[in-house]
Amino acid sequence: MLALGTLLAGTAGVAACRAVPAEDFGRPTVTAPAPAVPRVSIQDGTIPSAAAAEGPTRLTIPALELNATVKAVGVDPDTGDFAVPPSVDQVGWYRFGPGLSATAGSIVVAGHVDSAAEGEGAFFRLGSLEAGDVATLTGPDGRSRTFRVTARERYRKAAIPLQKYFSREGPVRLTLITCGGPFDPRTRHYRDNVVITAEPRT
């Protein structure tokens, strides 16, 4: 999960995972340079305009045989964490950032890698995506937008550059985030975050 305060400070990662030990998940290699992103200012947490914040309802990734429901999520008021949907079969779109109609910024979708109770999550194989693989977001009206993967990166959760990935500025792109790296049986968490960047397909 993601603490809102640490999102802005950039001192913690997104813990979209549950507690199932697994192999070292999500290779740390970068498949292609990520889009250049200018330095961003801290946002005030208000929701963007209705047009920019139109939320997707479905994510499909053919390379993963993934067809997942997307829920609009924000921040858990009790914990301050990114409120990823509890079901591992669903993924969450960060509603405080750009939406399906965005012309700038990072459209963020996060999901669980796995669960002790439910098994593999929607993003279990996210770290296997390669440059050129496609991901499509679809809205409630059936309108869709397709993106092509340009980068696959892995960070320690304390080192992920959250302001880069949650930016409302710069070229529009899709950012997919889950847990990865070694699993710590003591804390029942993965050490890292796996981040996929995808640009609009032209």
Automatic annotation (TrEMBL):
Superkingdom of this protein's organism: Bacteria
Q: Name one Pfam family in it.
A: Sortase
InterPro entries to which the protein is assigned, alphabetical: Sortase, Sortase_dom-sf, Sortase_F
Instruction: List keywords of the entry alphabetically.
Output: Hydrolase
Q: What is this protein called?
A: Class F sortase
> Which species is the source of this protein?
Asanoa siamensis
